[in-house]
Amino acid sequence: MIERKREDEFVVVSNGMLGYGFREESLRDAVEAGVDLIACDAGSSDPGPYYLGTGKPFVGDAMILRDLRLLVKAGADAGVPLVIGSAGGAGGDGQVDHLLMLLGRVMEELGLDRKVAVLRSELDRGTVREAVEEGRVRLFETGAALTVEDVDAAAHIVAQIGPESYFRALAEAPDILVVGRAWDVSNIAALPLMQGRDRGLALHMGKILECGSLASRPTGGGDLILGRLRDDHFIVEPPHPDQACTEASVSAHTFYEKSDPVMLAGPGGSVDLRRTLFEQIDPRRVRVSGSAFREAERYTVKLEGARLAGHRALTVGGARDPAFIRSIDAIQEAVREKIRETQAGFIDPSQYSITFHRYGLDGVMGAWEPNRQAAHEVGILIDVVAETPEIAEAVCGLARSTILHVPFEGRRATAGNIAFPFSPAEIPAGPVYEFNIYHLMEIDEPESFGRLEWLQ
Amino acid sequence: MAAVKTLGEVAEVVRSKNAGPFIVTFDILFETEEVFEAVRAAGLLSRQAVCGLYGVSDNELLGFDFYPFARAVKFSLRRPVGSGGPRDADVYGAQQHAPLLDLAVLP
Questions:
Q1: Residue A31 touches chain B, beta carbons under 8 Å
Q2: ipTM (interface pTM)
Q3: Which of A67, A139, A328, B47 has the greatest number of CB atoms lying within 10 Å of its CB?
């Protein structure tokens, strides 16, 4: 049973990822008890750079349509806005368009004509190049300053826009606001901030709610989460009757995917949690107070860009011979050397890279693995990334045949070194992208940042 | 005499996850204040211990600290390669926590 919304509070129900599913009753119960906003994150950089680079979504249409139908209908029934951020996964223009296409289908099916605002945050290279040249782009976590060459190499560049950029769209009261790449917190915090609510509390509540029920126990099955923002605190609770928010689940979620848990940095400043209090007010709800906003000197947005790194071909095999496993480092070097030697003047080593993932030895952790004791069998994934798909497949094939027959110390089995499970052994695996931009860009007017359009 | 206790035995949560594409962040959460304080007082879960486990130098270890408000310890490491790019082995950074489980933290 969800307590009825009070006059003095701003209530948000939040879905952590569009298309990952939630319980229909949770949304219905939340809306019946009264909400001011339905917020939904639809993207992340977590699945990797491929999605930003190619513009492909990482959640299937059928799953998105299911969630979208329920959310759009709930927004219409409750008469409150639905805000969807990081549309399409990486939030590029093409991904926003794809989500709008799905949204159009849903509105048609439901027979609803909603007022839809679209706030895009993909940037053209010229804009970013200019910012680099004017010294408005700062080093962040890549370890290297952004160059004009990086900008030109990027397939797509998006900015994680902050809540202030939502204001001009929200001021015109859209039924649905679809945003390109966004700081996850913005979807939840923008509307209460525009209404003059406390910045530290609104942003902190946004951070806790942005992953849905991850801030409650038991975690696992994805569901919605609900936040009540009041004057000097907010309350977090799960709509699911079998879940509970505890001091531990909520404070721990403050830590999630953040390297600094007491200063939550975002566009425009940080939320200072040094005086934050998490209090259990009943078995299922936690009150949070004391979070304070510290304004930064300059307003910044985080840029994300991905460039094509090459084309992949891979092969998987297993080694069971103990002498082979003991010599595995030397064997890999021999394979690399043999390919360099036989392909000299034909394929240059600068045109490809070979990575050996050695499962059962250090395949998961690589250089960070402290346990160098190999298992009795080792799985070897040979990953080749090259300038062209043809080179990738050629080098992968050579690596396969070479590792199969290369001699090593103590070898007794001279017929073949590796068990390959497949014929053909090589698998072409398409283009590979890498994040080459992850920097902060200073902007002067966050309120007018992004490109706003209205659908009709 | 009490047996040595490992982090896997006394912590409620031991996890790693991307904090952006270039950093992996590690969270160790304790169920009670008592355990949290005991681990802190024992001094075995330390910057040096973590550096030893991951084979990194002290200046590569980012923000190792104890946070009483969440009964938690947190630190981060810069990834050798960006998430999901060539040569990466853990796109989500979600399986880098395991060596912590065997760390002796209570004498």
A1: no
A2: 0.94
A3: A67
